[in-house]
Amino acid sequence: MRKIYMDYAATTPVDKEVIDEMIPYFNEIYGNASSIHSFGRDAFNAIEHAREQVANIINAGSDEVIFTSGGTESDNLAIKGVAYLNKKKRNTKGNHIITSAIEHPAVLETCKYLEKQGFNVVYLPVDEYGLINPDDLIEAISKDTFLITIMFANNEIGTIEPIEEIGNIAREHDVLFHTDAVQAVGKVPIDVNKFNIDLLSISSHKIYGPKGVGALYIREDVKLQPIVHGGGHEKGLRSSTYNTPGIVGLGKACELGKKRMKKDVIHLKNLRDTLIKNVLEIEESYLNGHPEKRLVNNAHFRFTAIEGESLNLMLDDKGIAASTGSACSSKKLQASHVLLAIGLDPVEAHGSLRLTLGRWNTPKDITYVADVLPEIVENLRKMSPLWNR
Ligand SMILES: Cc1ncc(COP(=O)(O)O)c(C=O)c1O
Question: What are the pocket residues of ligand 1 if the criterion is a CB atom closer than 6 Å to any ligand atom?
Fold first, then answer.
């Protein structure tokens, strides 16, 4: 059977060029990067090269990038790191954080955890497309606000937030700005200086790199408290022996991501637009998220009287890997917090399908999905008590 992967927002395959770059670091250049002998120095040099590659894709300085175990850890370190230092120093700022209602759980759960410790968090609402309103942000800022954390692009519906505007507002009000850019890196040009971003999270496995490695950009004058203590790696901000192959892989993935961005964007946009056009020909089907301000690889639909889980299983039977929402929450049968936040009711939210494309999808993949999907939707509707036609 034909197999088609359309779940690139959940994870990506590792690029062959990335694998080739990583391999020597498993059993040839295997030294501990903190050791002073030549084995260690070789690993150290590779890590520093990777740091530059990562910094390059977001226009940062290489001394402003630290390595972590992934997007989740980067988000945790950025938010808790700033929050705990702020509390310890009893800054003139208070205990107030602003985020949005549609963040990834790596941000939302971290904020909820901090709330239990006495921090005060505002969750900004979004409009029907998933966009925050900059005026709401300005209104929410108080003299106590020390951090704004708003994602670059949403992992479920693909909406891209007005990051430059948010960065300007944060800077004008002297508030730090963290953005989870896990889904945006490699698909949207990012310039931390132009956008006034102070902290930015990256994950390797979303950009054709290996799993279990990520990075956090920390503007040079921003101070954090570590959340992992130990040997003092990464300027004391993130202890643990360096994952050299993983870091080398992330570095290469960023280099390729930057080099291929223009080509990738054209390719993905063409495929995505054809997919959206074809799928919307199905009766009572709708696009979730913003029609233009969305990631080039994201197509997120809802179908009246359809149960997303069943739709996914039937697509899987046809060899198509899709998702109902984010991979992290798709095993929980709760309606997605993102879809509820854009105003869908739980039944509508459950009728959703996320198709996310990648570098290796082809026009034939799109044709195949466009061929099989209408019949699956029709069959499911025949069985649905909600479809009274
Ligand atoms: C927006 C966003 N943030 C954070 C994460 C977590 O990244 P990681 O899997 O590297 O921990 C994900 C992964 O789905 C994501 O999509």
Answer: 70-72, 75, 104, 106, 151, 155, 180, 182-183, 203, 205, 214, 326, 328
| Ligand 1 geometric centre to CA of 152 (Å) | 12
Which ligand 1 atom sits closest to the C-alpha of 106?
4
E strand map for 175-310: 176-180, 199-203, 214-218, 285-287, 298-303
* CATH number of the 16-256 domain: 3.40.640.10
Q: Are 81 and 68 in contact (CB under 8 A)?
A: no
Which residue out of 138, 328, 383, 386 is catalytically annotated?
Answer: 328
* Entry pTM: 0.97
Q: What is the pLDDT of residues 344-369, one digit of tens each?
A: 999 999 999 999 999 999 999 999 99
Superfamily, domain 4-11+261-383: Aspartate Aminotransferase, domain 1 (3.90.1150.10)
- Say how far apart CA 329 and CA 354 lie, in whole Å: 13
214 beta partners:
68, 203
